[in-house]
Amino acid sequence: MKKFLTTLLVLSGLAASAQAAVIVGLDAGYLVDSEEEFISARVGFEVANTSAFSHQLELEIGYTDTKEFGLKGEIIPLLANYRFVAPSSGAWGYHAGVGAGMARSSIKGSFGGFGVDFNDESFAAQAFAGVTYQAGSNVTLSLGAKYLWIDDVNFAGASVEVGDDVALSAGISFKF
Question: What does residue 94 show for φ and ψ, rounded to 5 degrees?
Fold first, then answer.
């Protein structure tokens, strides 16, 4: 979390010094394979903006969890993203992008009378795309899909496959 806040402050400083627009967004969605909710928040800035497109750099943090057999599993990906946004017709447009970073995976609870508390970090990557609707001069709504892949983690000396999933989501973002 300390690294995330430091990076967030650095990004904010770069955006302010470049007089770039700061963009804050929130997405809520559903992981298709895991059948769990997935939420994410992002903050970033535009590095280029014309009437035809916008290039954005951002930091994103996500969260999902599941509970089974007395255990709770959590995954928290933290990714640096590149996002391309383009209008296509009137207020409608589209976005696409990629991201890479790390994910913290954990399992906690009790199983068979034994306490379990494992966590590990691993590489994470994503690709995403969707449609956008310009709801106001500084407010954008979006619908999209995200492919998220997380490398294996090591729990108690055993390699555990976290794998991949597709999230379908709706979001909102604000430009300042």
Answer: -145, 160
- Write down the domain spans for the chain: 2-175
Residue 10: phi and psi, rounded to 5, are -65, -45
pLDDT tens-digit readout, 102-145: 999 999 998 777 888 999 999 999 999 999 999 999 999 999 99
pTM of the complete model: 0.85
The CA-atom distances, in angstroms, between 84 and each of 23, 164, 176 are 13, 23, 18
Q: Which CATH architecture has domain 2-175?
A: Beta Barrel (2.40)
